[in-house]
Design brief:
- This protein is an alpha+beta fold and 265 residues long.
- It contains 9 helices and 8 strands.
- The radius of gyration is 31 Å and the shape is elongated.
């Protein structure tokens, strides 16, 4: 038997598709494609059962930055110093601490200091798909970002509940960055971290920033806004409210009732 005869002797199984079959199959493909397009890749990879993240606990950071908005002069020295020690250049866009000024606001609401909270429950760490944002247990449990693992997905920025976000985007490297209490400062020859120095604390001319070891109240930013003013500031009139009398005036002798004072010339 020739090859042609063998080929002819075999029956090829075929199926005739109707127009209805074609439309049904095509619709299924379109639905799958639409589902894939609407589901971010990072979300699909990191999807976890509900409630699984709530069970995760993290060791508390051994250092926190607190600040006094009323003492801040808005000079942005802390921002320039931060970018200098971390990135080697003075650039407000590369600072990991942020000072927001409202030109139309009144004291003390005209200036807002935004410092990383080193959150007890760090959502940036929880949601990072690559583990770039992590708790550094070997260095005081500080919450920081490993730039070598960051893929620039900005998940940590969108996850941060604070405004402005405490994680900051680096437009040069196309990666996220955040305050690490100056643990990794290539351009500063000082030891940082919870047991070292912080560039913003050291450079602030008003001494409006301070490192503490006790975990602040996690209700919004209430625990991070503190009073760092002494009696000298009180004597200048920087009091918490109108019921507080500055020590200089409290100790001053008041003239007897009815006594007339000479006007100043």
């Amino acid at each position: 038997m020739t090859g042609a005869q063998k080929a002819g002797s075999k029956k090829v199984a075929t199926k005739n598709y109707s127009r209805r079959d074609f439309l049904v199959g095509g619709g299924a493909v379109i639905a799958v494609d639409a589902l894939c397009a609407c589901t971010p890749a990072a979300a699909a990879v990191t999807a976890a059962p509900q409630g699984s993240q709530a069970k995760i606990s993290y060791a508390a950071s051994q250092g926190y930055l607190v600040y006094d908005n009323k003492k801040c002069a808005g000079c942005v020295t802390c921002m320039l110093t931060c970018s200098l020690v971390h990135e080697g250049k003075e650039n407000l866009s590369l600072a990991r601490i942020q000072i927001a000024q409202n030109s139309f606001g009144k004291f003390p609401d005209d200036i807002k200091m935004a410092v990383c909270r080193q959150c007890v429950t760090p959502v940036c760490v929880q949601n990072c798909p690559t583990g770039a944002c992590f708790v550094d247990s070997a260095n005081g449990n500080i919450r920081r970002i490993d730039s070598t693992k960051c893929i620039g997905c900005k998940t940590c920025l969108s996850a941060c509940p604070q405004q402005p976000n405490r994680t900051v985007w680096n437009p040069t490297t196309k990666k996220s960055m955040k305050c690490d209490l100056c643990f990794d400062t290539p351009y500063w020859n000082e030891k940082g971290g919870p047991t070292g120095k912080q560039a913003c604390v050291e450079s602030c001319p008003m001494k409006a920033i301070k490192l503490v070891t006790k975990t602040p109240d996690q209700t919004e930013t209430d625990g991070y806004v503190v009073n760092l003013r002494n009696d000298h500031w009180l004597n200048l009139g920087l009091v918490e409210n109108g019921t507080i009398i500055p020590p200089l005036f409290a100790n001053a002798k008041t003239p007897p009732a009815g006594t007339k004072t000479q006007p100043k010339r």
